[in-house]
Amino acid sequence: MATNDIAKLKTLLGYWIEHNHEHGQEFREWADRAVGWGDISEDLRQAAEEMDKASQLLSRALDKLEGKGA
Domain spans of the chain? Predict the structure, then answer.
């Protein structure tokens, strides 16, 4: 991988992780508002959990990329 690609990927990973965190927070806020709307609240909470899982994988990828001294 080219040096500029590594730098760009590091930047993107950081952005994606933060962006996912923001979306997860929004999902949780709307899940709280959606209580009593059938399964919608639970679906939003599950989406937030899945976003957290995606962020964990992205963080792991970033750690690995940084561990390579890239």
Answer: 3-67
